[in-house]
Amino acid sequence: MNVANASVSVQDLSLSFGSVTVLKSLNLDVAEGEFVVLLGPSGCGKSTLLNCIAGLLDISDGRIFIKGKNVTWEEPADRGIGMVFQSYALYPQMTVEKNLSFGLRVAGTPKDEIDKRIARAAEILQIGPLLQRKPAALSGGQRQRVAIGRALVRDVDVFLFDEPLSNLDAKLRSELRVEIKRLHQKLANTMIYVTHDQIEAMTLADRIAVMRGGVIQQFDAPQVIYNRPVNRFVAGFLGSPGMNFLDGRLENDGGWHFVAGELKVPLASYDFEREPSPGASVFGIRPEHVGLNSGSGWPFTAQASVDVVEPMGSDTLVWLKLADQNFTVRVTSERAPQSGESVEIGFDPMRASLFDEQGNRL
Amino acid sequence: MSNPAVLSSTIAGADAVRGELSGPRGPKPRSVLSRRNIFLYGTLFLVAVYYLLPLYVMVVTSLKGMPEIRLGNIFSPPVEITFEPWVKAWSTACTGLNCDGLSRGFWNSVRITVPSVILSIALASVNGYALANWRFKGADIFFTILIVGAFIPYQVMLYPIVIILREIGLYGSLWGLVLVHSIFGMPILTLLFRNYFASLPDELFRAARVDGAGFWGIYLRIMVPMSMPIFVVALIIQITGIWNDFLFGVVYTRPDTYPMTVQLNNIVNSVQGVKEYNVNMAATLITGLVPLIIYFVSGKLFVRGIAAGAVKG
Amino acid sequence: MSVSMKSERPSRLFRNLNAKIASVPMILTALVVFVGGTAWTVLYSFTNSRLLPRLNFVGLDQYYRLWAAPRWLVSIENLLIYGVLSLIFSLVIGFLLAAMLDRKIRFEDTFRTIFLYPFALSFIVTGLVWQWLLNPEFGIQGVIRGLGWESFNFDPLYNSSIVIYGVLIAALWQGTGLVMCLMLAGLRGIDEDIWKAARVDGIPTWRTYVSIIIPMMRPVFITTLVIIASGIVKVYDLVVAQTSGGPGIASEVPAKYVYDYMFFAQNLGQGFAASTMMLLTVVIVIVPWAYLEFGRRGRT
Question: Looking at CA atoms only, how far is residue A197 from chain B in angstroms?
Answer without folding.
Answer: 21
